[in-house]
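If your schedule permits, I should be very grateful for your opinion on a structural question. I have a record of one protein: its chain in single-letter code and its fold written as discrete structure tokens. Kindly check, if you would, that the fold set down in the tokens agrees with what the sequence suggests. I remain grateful for any guidance, and I place the record below:

***
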Amino acid sequence: MKAFSSATVIHVSDFHRSLDYYTKILGFTFDFEFGEYAGLFIDEVFIHISGSGNPGRKKPTGSAHLCIDIDHVDDYYQRLSENGAIISVTLEDRVYGMRDFAVDDPDGNTLVFGQAIAPILL
């Protein structure tokens, strides 16, 4: 077996509001839609948005927390700030060797975007 990709499913209360937020504010690209379920991606990172009308598995809205490694974190932070993203943690260098920040979606799901700034020594 060889695993070759992954997609985090993010449960939201208002499917269309969330779809707009992820595409227009955060810059994800639309991949597919099936009822109140959609696939989005940004470069090689895939996520799925599941609305309350989706008949599949239900998880509490606002409980997702995912971390995405990126390059040019300062530029992306600036762009999201200008776009009106809900920034819950400002951009800073962290003791764990990352420069990162966090945004929330309208339901409180959190996405952390970060760039390595130093090797982590074990």
Observations:
- The mean pLDDT is 94.
- Residues 7-53+62-116 form a domain with the 2,3-Dihydroxybiphenyl 1,2-Dioxygenase; domain 1 fold (CATH 3.10.180.10).
